[in-house]
Amino acid sequence: MHRKIVFSFTALFFLLGSTIFADTIYTWTDADGIKRYSNSQPPEDVENVQTLQGIPYDQSADDRNRREYDRMVEDASRSADRHFEEQADKKAQEAEARRQQQLEAQNRRIEQERAKLQKEIDDIQGRGLGPTFSSGQKANMIKQVQEKINQLENNPDDYFTK
Length: 162
What we know:
2 domains, rod-shaped, mainly alpha
């Protein structure tokens, strides 16, 4: 019995779905008690025939629906593209901000190191000369610290990796 019901609904679905080709659908119950559907008239001896009028096929409605669907897909595609572009821009801005922060941190570190080395030069210059500390030693020490400052300014990455 379950199969008959499933078959009946399936047949009805396909027959009603094919109203493009049929203007009228006939339904009746045959002598065995099986519900029948057809787009052609049933046999003459069948009683209680019902007719279902088909819905005429409207090509223009399909065209409108297709255009509307295509427009929705295009809008969704543009929206997704904008979203991805915004995300890419946001990531690029975040990366630039991180790079800028790193650069500022490196510049602060360089300035701190430069100030430390300059203080070292000032301390050497303020040191008095004596039997154990000559003007040549003083000039040599200042020269070494000045070379460190030059290296710091010219190549800070190498300076800090040593």
